[in-house]
Amino acid sequence: MIRANNPELKSWLFIEHGSDFPIQNIPFGIFKPKNQANPRAGTRLGNFVIDLSVIAALGYFKDEGISSKEVFSQNTLNQFISLGKPIWRSVRDKLSVIFDLENREFWNTPDFREEVVYKIQDVEMLMPVSVGDYTDFYSSIEHATNVGKMFRDAENPLLPNWKHIPVGYHGRSSSIVISGTNIHRPMGQILQGNEDTPVFSQSRSLDFELEMAFISGKSTQLGQRISIREASNSIFGLVLFNDLSARDIQRWEYVPLGPFLSKSFGSIISPWIVTLDALEPFKTKGPKQDVAVLPYLQFEEPANYDIHLDVFLKPENGHEDRICRSNFKYMYWNMFQQLAHQTVGGCNINVGDIYGSGTISGPTPDSFGSMLELSWKGTKPILLSDGSERKFLEDNDTVIFRGFAEKNGIRIGFGEVVTKIIPPLK
Ligand code: MN
Question: Is the confidence at residue 107, as pLDDT, over 80?
Answer without folding.
Answer: no
